[in-house]
Design a protein that fits this description.
Length: 455
């Protein structure tokens, strides 16, 4: 493996930090999301705000050399567009300096679904151009503050989710009829925000790398029926390649633009927007990868529907793949195909920055958790990535696992664990939050001590 290859861990702030109302942090939409019987709230997460030294020590012990964190907008600018909270920035100073001290390269993500509550209520989140301006201001403040120490940046976690109906949960959208026009408007606004920060970074900091990030869930046609193949092509183009093309080439692709025109979609496209989009120039294409999915065109309703919604109706299980308890298909070959395809298409370095498997686990307070399935999952995915690199010739910057110290999953359920370190809490009982290495911790330690050359 290349000597400068990045191996590491990746998280969001709301799933990790806790300290939701400490040191001047403002509220985000996630801070007011109530707990349910099955899920916790987000208030404590794994309390990394106070335990970051211990967590960084564990990452260092695994020989990781990168940690992707998120800088929470409402921690740095409590209401999203007003005063700066210096205590919030100071926390990230401590975290970043702690990484650098241990030889861990930081990557910063600027938005992971947690809109400041004030902007959600007053501006309807990213429906408003005011929110775009506020985000660009926030991004510039954070970039200027950290650019001397942080050289890898992304804006929106899983940016293509802003082109699916998930957008209404993750963009601060609180009022409206959730129309296709609204969906495309929010997507366009977030792309304008990304493009402005991309141009800002590249104009000011020659040594800083800035990239796009998508949730890569490649779609297989359910059969070789031409309609299944066509549906898979359309999803691929609308939900992935449209974004990757934009990140690299600075414009939306013609298939999506033709759809917009033919269906009179009002996506708040204004004079000057195309020039802003043209500022995009990704240094790398990053993505999360957990699974592949499958589309059956026969299940799609007869009425004409935006391809953005196909998977809601036409998705089905792939009988050739095993799944975890949550039905997520385990597919290392899909990982290789994806990496190879992305690099072939764009010839820009690719960067898997989230990968892993959710497993229900229980610690008895004494014995090590034997997570052989997790070891197998990561070993097979790393092997597939190496095949993409050394057989197919793809350039890959690194491999980051998701939540390698347990964190609550995105629906705030700590029982779906991804970690190689167990965190001792349940949904409603914080217990002692003790960090306990699992079997996979020692496996990864050995693998990374040899830079991934032996699995
Ligand atoms: C990614 C998100 O889609 O998947 C994370 O960026 C999320 O926030 C992760 O936690 C795993 O999904 P889940 O639902 O299993 O937590």
């Amino acid at each position: 493996m290349p000597k400068d290859f990045f191996w590491g861990n990746s998280v969001s702030s709301m799933q990790t930090e806790g300290a939701w109302n400490i040191d001047g942090k403002g509220l985000s939409v996630y801070d007011v999301r109530p707990a349910t019987e099955q899920t916790s709230d987000w208030h404590d997460a794994i309390d990394e705000y106070h335990r970051y030294d211990e967590d960084l020590d564990l990452m260092q012990a695994m020989h990781m050399n990168m940690y992707r964190i998120q800088v929470s907008w409402s921690r740095v600018i409590p209401d999203g567009d007003g005063e700066i909270n210096e205590a919030g920035l100071a926390f990230y100073d401590r975290l970043v300096d702690g990484m650098l001290k241990r030889g861990i390269t930081p990557m910063i993500c600027l938005y992971h679904f947690d809109m400041p509550l004030a902007l959600a209520k007053n501006e309807n989140g990213f429906m408003s151009r005011h929110t775009v301006d506020a985000f660009v201001r926030f991004g510039k403040i954070v970039i200027d503050h950290f650019a001397d120490r942080v050289k890898y940046w992304i804006t929106f976690n899983e940016h293509n989710l802003y082109f699916t109906d998930e957008v209404f949960n993750i963009s601060g959208y609180t009022q409206g009829a959730k129309t296709v026009d609204d969906l495309y408007t929010i997507f366009h606004h977030t792309m304008l925000a990304h493009a402005q920060l991309d141009a800002y970074v590249h104009g000011k900091y020659a040594d800083v790398k800035f990239g796009g990030m998508v949730a890569a869930t490649p779609v297989y046609p359910a059969t070789s029926k031409p309609n299944d193949v066509l549906a898979a092509q359309q999803i691929d183009q609308f939900l992935y390649q449209n974004l990757n093309e934009a990140f690299v080439q600075g414009h939306y692709d013609h298939q999506v633009l033709t759809y917009i025109k033919d269906h009179d979609i009002d996506y708040d496209h204004q004079a000057g927007d195309d020039e802003i989009l043209a500022g995009m120039h990704a240094d790398f294409l990053s993505f999360s990868y957990y699974q592949t999915t499958t589309i059956n065109a026969d299940k799609l309703p007869a009425d004409e529907m935006a391809p953005n919604y196909y998977l809601n109706y036409g998705g089905e299980a792939n009988r050739f793949l095993a799944t975890n308890e949550w039905g997520w298909a385990i597919d290392p070959t899909g990982f290789r195909t994806l990496i190879t395809d992305l690099y072939n298409r764009y010839q820009v370095p690719v960067f898997p920055i989230e990968n892993g498997i959710g497993i229900r686990e229980h610690w008895d307070g004494e014995h090590q958790i034997e997570d052989d399935l997790r070891i197998q999952y990561h070993a097979e995915h790393i092997k597939a990535m190496k095949d993409a690199m050394f057989i197919d010739g793809a350039k890959v910057l690194g491999y980051l696992g998701w939540g390698l110290i347990d964190i609550p999953s995105s629906h705030a359920d700590i029982e779906k664990r991804y970690g190689m370190v167990y965190v001792n809490r349940s949904n409603h009982d914080l217990k002692d939050l003790k960090r306990v290495p699992k079997k996979s911790f020692y496996w990864l330690q050995t693998v990374l001590s040899k830079n991934g050359d032996e699995l």
